[in-house]
TrEMBL record:
<feature type="region of interest" description="Disordered">
    <location>
        <begin position="678"/>
        <end position="781"/>
    </location>
</feature>
<keyword id="KW-0413">Isomerase</keyword>
<protein>
    <submittedName>
        <fullName>PIN1 protein</fullName>
    </submittedName>
</protein>
<dbReference type="InterPro" id="IPR001623">
    <property type="entry name" value="DnaJ_domain"/>
</dbReference>
<dbReference type="InterPro" id="IPR046357">
    <property type="entry name" value="PPIase_dom_sf"/>
</dbReference>
<dbReference type="InterPro" id="IPR000297">
    <property type="entry name" value="PPIase_PpiC"/>
</dbReference>
<dbReference type="InterPro" id="IPR036457">
    <property type="entry name" value="PPM-type-like_dom_sf"/>
</dbReference>
<feature type="domain" description="PpiC">
    <location>
        <begin position="571"/>
        <end position="679"/>
    </location>
</feature>
<feature type="compositionally biased region" description="Low complexity">
    <location>
        <begin position="722"/>
        <end position="734"/>
    </location>
</feature>
<feature type="compositionally biased region" description="Acidic residues">
    <location>
        <begin position="742"/>
        <end position="762"/>
    </location>
</feature>
<feature type="domain" description="J">
    <location>
        <begin position="303"/>
        <end position="382"/>
    </location>
</feature>
<feature type="region of interest" description="Disordered">
    <location>
        <begin position="590"/>
        <end position="610"/>
    </location>
</feature>
<dbReference type="InterPro" id="IPR036869">
    <property type="entry name" value="J_dom_sf"/>
</dbReference>
<dbReference type="GO" id="GO:0003755">
    <property type="term" value="F:peptidyl-prolyl cis-trans isomerase activity"/>
</dbReference>
<dbReference type="Pfam" id="PF00226">
    <property type="entry name" value="DnaJ"/>
</dbReference>
<keyword id="KW-0697">Rotamase</keyword>
Length: 865
């Protein structure tokens, strides 16, 4: 590249020609040299046109924390139902996900840039929800990458140069709508077409929050000092507008279905059963052998031939008349007993109309009448029924299938009777549906969701994704979008399925109590939803907490060292206390842990039970108010937490006396598992790309839940690899991550000598063993090691100046002996016992005399490569 070449804004540009660069997702070109040098161009059939420069992303002073939670309904025996129908997606950093997972940069975005989605499966199947959850973010990020000129959902806020120079700026609302529509299209034309799911999604880019919902889903804004606001109300609960808007087509179709009596087929072939809406044809075949009264059978019959009970070879005039007379005596309102008079009247009226239709069809063309009867016998939405209807083999190619359909349509077109047009149209629609069924089977194999057509769908979910069999009889996709500028403290509730039925009161109470604990709030919402009079096997929700960035976090401290992790804010370590509840999946035992307070053979709890216990603990602490004597609530919570820790914690640290009860010591960034680290730092201060230190995972499959304490110091429920834990800042004030002070670790300038070096022993300590060696061993060392850090760091610098090659020896002889003793106690919990013991030795490259001077008699061991 020449020094005279112009450089574009942002990343992701590729070489198109000697003079041009191209941004592939947006198809925007950049001229590096020539007459158009430094300009951004769009290519069209008419040539090149100049477009505005890409948007330069800025960081908004906001803190965002979000979490999804799902709760399963339990059997009376107490065992969890193995039917989790919900799937959630939480992307806290969209550019990072695009770069690492999808392998393309996603620049030009304001930060924070987050994405959230929740899908709830219908008809007792999570297949559609699973498919949408895996596809949604991939498609969304690709669509977002196409727009590099910013995102505005209001033209009033759009810069003038962008408003009048072409549609280069993207609308998040239209983007979300397009993504959901493509998901619906692909699901309908795939093997999961009969499955379906409700969905709610939200995207936050800078201060722009845009949400979209389909089916039974809603979005609510919850404030500290104001009433809740429905950003996207549940379908049917919108505020009344003018009559033209209130009587739109989707609402009218749902309104008609809501007026349809149960177990009565409509003219379009819909029927409302005990589980919701389904096709009358499917319900008819499922209950073909059911012995029921004639009134009920006639009311749910899918067509006129089924009403009369016409035989396979019929109909003929004699058979039709005989069937009519026989049934008329049994369903006439004056003859029938033990039946609702309205149902009897409706059944008799339908019987009379069916007899007239069949007689007219037979008189017009007997052959066409029999062919229509044959077509309406089969279900066109299943492969077997489609083949029988079109009279083709399953392996038939597309040309044969289309030819069979055209032949049948030409035959049915011969009938031109006003009274029979509805029955003829049912036959034509069946032929078209059969062709689509065989096309899907040919391209993707036999549908794996055919059994789902027998399951009903709630009326509020008819606008959901999928549900191919209900399209045309009431089902339709309806995407509702809304935008909000997040300029103040707010909690956003994404509710789908059962949680969408929660009232504002049910949403506000947990959100106002746990203002910065989204996991705990979402868990309480899901638990409350399962107590509603519904039969859902699971309930899920997503809570998004947004607040202005705190001044001490937003302001840069000039006294802090310049060498920092990329994207990090705030201090590097925090002093914590925690309450641990160990848990394991149902049917599995807890792994052996010598540091545990109770034996692993005790009756273990499931992760869901552990979460429920911790939420109750969190609520009990947050509900503590100032007593009449004016005591500080933080002190009350600290005392209450210590008692709870002593009573319920399953970590041996709970046996420590006084304020050290549950103490974990100083925890540094990068030394814990990601879930635990997220729970121990305030939002907005987490370094980008935080990863656990080597060896920080515990063997086994137990998990950990953790929560922290006090309104600004209490954190949230987190799953880790040890059990369930609750964390607290033992300093009693400020955020979880505190700047290092005189009471804490030394100043970071001194720590820089060893903590940031490539062969730092503080980083290598994590490789000496598992969590038992790392956490408990280091906790025993740190108290005494701090006193010797400065002294041994200076000795190390002097030794290196003399040309001696030492390993980073900064611990004293007493530290080493204590650490070795701790390692011996923790050894049973480590996989490599011998290796853990040997790695605890501080190896030294040098002769024994130098080692003797440093450690006063402790002999070195030769390092083995």
């Amino acid at each position: 590249m020449s020094h005279d070449d112009a450089n574009p804004i942002g990343e992701g540009w590729t070489r198109h020609s000697a003079d041009m660069l191209l941004h592939p997702p947006s198809q925007v070109y950049f001229a590096q040299r020539g007459e158009q040098r430094g300009k951004y161009l769009l290519k069209s059939e008419d040539g090149w046109t100049v477009c505005p420069a890409p948007h330069v992303g800025s960081e908004c002073p906001m803190q965002v924390r979000a979490a999804a939670a799902s709760v399963l309904r339990s059997h009376p025996e107490g065992q969890a139902v193995d039917r989790k129908l919900d799937r959630s997606v939480v992307l806290a950093d969209m550019p990072k996900t695009a770069r690492l997972a999808l392998k393309f940069p996603l620049g030009f975005l304001d930060t924070p840039a987050c994405c959230y989605a929740l899908f709830t499966g219908l008809r007792g199947s999570a297949a559609a929800a699973q498919w949408c959850a895996t596809q949604f973010h991939q498609r969304l990020l690709k669509e977002v990458a196409k727009k590099i000129h910013g995102w505005w959902d209001s033209e009033a806020e759009m810069p003038e140069e962008l408003l009048y120079r072409g549609s280069h700026v993207g609308s998040l609302g239209k983007c979300l709508q397009h993504v959901l529509e493509t998901l619906d299209h692909d699901l309908l034309h795939g093997p999961l077409g009969f499955a379906g799911c409700n969905g709610v999604v939200a995207v936050l880019i800078g201060e722009n929050l845009v949400a979209a919902a389909v089916g039974e889903a809603s979005v609510a804004l919850l404030f500290d000092d104001a009433d809740a606001v429905p950003l996207i109300p549940l379908l049917g609960q919108e505020e009344e507008e003018d009559e033209e808007d209130a009587t739109n087509k989707p609402m009218s179709s749902v309104s008609k279905l809501m007026q349809l009596p149960p177990n009565r087929a409509s003219e379009q072939g819909a029927l409302i059963g005990s589980s919701g809406l389904l096709r009358a044809k499917c319900a008819w075949e499922a209950q073909a052998d059911l012995d029921e009264d004639p009134v009920s059978r006639i009311l749910r019959a899918p067509d006129a031939f089924a009403v009369l009970g016409t035989s396979e070879k019929g109909p003929d005039p004699a058979e039709t008349k005989a069937a009519y007379k026989r049934l008329a005596l049994r369903v006439h309102p004056d003859k029938v007993k033990n039946c609702d008079p309205g149902d009897a009247k409706a059944a008799f009226s339908r019987l009379d109309a069916a007899a007239k239709i069949v007689e007219a069809l037979y008189e017009n063309d007997a052959g066409t009448c029999r062919e229509l009867r044959r077509i309406l016998r089969y279900d066109p939405l299943v492969v077997k029924g489609a083949c029988q209807l079109l009279q083709v083999e399953m392996e038939a190619d597309e040309a044969q299938v289309l030819k069979a359909k055209d032949t049948l349509k030409q035959t049915l077109a011969k009938v031109q009777l006003p009274e029979a047009c509805s029955e003829v149209q049912k036959g034509i629609d069946a032929c078209v549906a059969a062709v689509e069924t065989l096309r899907v089977a040919r391209q993707a194999g036999p549908s794996s969701s055919e059994r789902l057509v027998l399951e009903g769908v709630p009326l509020q979910s008819l606008s959901a994704i999928g549900l191919r069999d209900l399209r045309g009889i009431g089902g339709h996709l309806q995407v509702r979008t809304a935008a909000y500028r997040a300029g103040e403290d707010v909690r956003v509730a994404l509710c789908c399925g059962a949680t969408a039925q929660l009232s504002f009161k049910d949403l506000e109470e947990p959100a106002n109590l746990c203002r910065w604990q989204p996991k705990a709030v979402a868990l309480q919402w899901a638990t409350k939803a399962l107590s509603l009079p519904r039969s859902d096997s699971s309930a899920s929700s997503i809570c998004i907490c947004i607040r202005e960035q705190e001044e001490e976090v937003a302001a840069e401290d000039p006294s802090r060292p310049a060498k920092r992790h990329k994207g990090s804010h705030g201090p590097r370590s925090v002093r914590l206390r925690h309450l641990l509840l160990r848990c394991a999946e149902p049917g599995k035992l807890l792994p052996e842990d010598p540091m545990a307070r109770r034996r692993a053979t005790q009756k273990s709890r499931t992760p869901a039970e552990a979460e429920a216990e911790l939420v109750e603990v969190l609520r009990s602490l947050l509900l503590l108010d100032t007593d009449p004597n004016g005591a500080d609530p933080d002190l009350q919570r600290s005392s209450a937490f210590r008692k709870l820790c002593q009573q319920r914690s399953e970590c041996s640290s709970a046996d420590n006396a006084g304020q050290l009860c549950g103490d974990l010591g100083w925890i540094a960034r990068g030394s814990c598992e990601p879930a635990f680290e997220q729970a121990t730092q305030p939002a907005g201060t987490a370094p980008q790309g935080v990863s656990p230190a080597p060896g920080s995972a515990v063997p086994g499959k137990a998990q950990e839940e953790d929560v922290s304490a006090a309104p600004s110091k209490q954190d949230d429920c987190r799953e880790d690899s040890l059990g369930s834990s609750r964390s607290r800042n033992s300093q009693g004030s400020g955020d979880l991550f505190r700047p290092d002070s005189e009471e804490g670790p030394p100043e970071e300038e001194e720590e820089e000598e060893f903590s940031d070096s490539e062969d730092s022993p503080w980083e290598d300590m994590a490789t000496w063993g598992e969590v038992g060696a790392e956490v408990h061993g280091r906790r025993a060392l740190t108290k005494e090691a701090r006193e010797y850090r400065e002294e041994w760091a200076q000795k190390l610098r002097d030794a290196k100046t003399l040309g001696k090659e030492y390993l980073d020896t900064i611990l004293s002889k007493e530290d080493f002996i204590r650490f070795k003793k701790t390692m011996r106690q923790a050894r049973p919990s480590c996989d490599g016992r011998k290796l853990a013991s040997e790695k605890a030795v501080l190896w030294l490259r040098g002769d024994e005399e130098d080692f003797e001077d440093l450690f006063g008699g402790l002999r070195p061991r030769k390092k083995v490569d």
